Amino acid sequence: MDFLLAFLITGLAASGGWIAWGIGRGWSARRVRRERLRLAQARAAAEIRRAEVTAHLRELELADEVYRDFVSRHPER
After folding, report:
1. CA distance 66 to 16
2. Following CA atoms 16, 22, 24, 25 in sequence, which dihedral angle do they give, to the nearest 10 degrees?
3. What whole-number distance in Å separates Cα of residue 73 and Cα of residue 44?
4. What are the C-alpha distances in Å from 70 to residues 11, 55, 65, 67?
5. What does the alpha-carbon distance between residue 73 and residue 45 come to, in Å, rounded to a whole number?
6. pLDDT per residue as tens digits for the range 6-20
7. pLDDT tens digits for 41-64?
8. For residue 74, which phi and psi values (nearest 5 degrees)?
9. Residue 64 near residue 70, CB atoms below 8 Å
């Protein structure tokens, strides 16, 4: 039992730097993934909003066309 405990402690001491490096690298990669996801969500929301604004603008243009057509066909009003 003492041998196994000594072997485990020696192994952890020898590979401690690699373990710390791996944990740091994993945390960094996770942070980058979260940032990329946040940016992708912001881009998607902006694209949806842009489409909504474009659709609303087109509705206004169509309403204006209908109004102008009505006025040109019925000048007495």
Report:
1. 75
2. 160
3. 43
4. 87, 23, 8, 5
5. 42
6. 887 888 788 877 887
7. 999 999 999 999 999 999 999 999
8. -125, 75
9. no
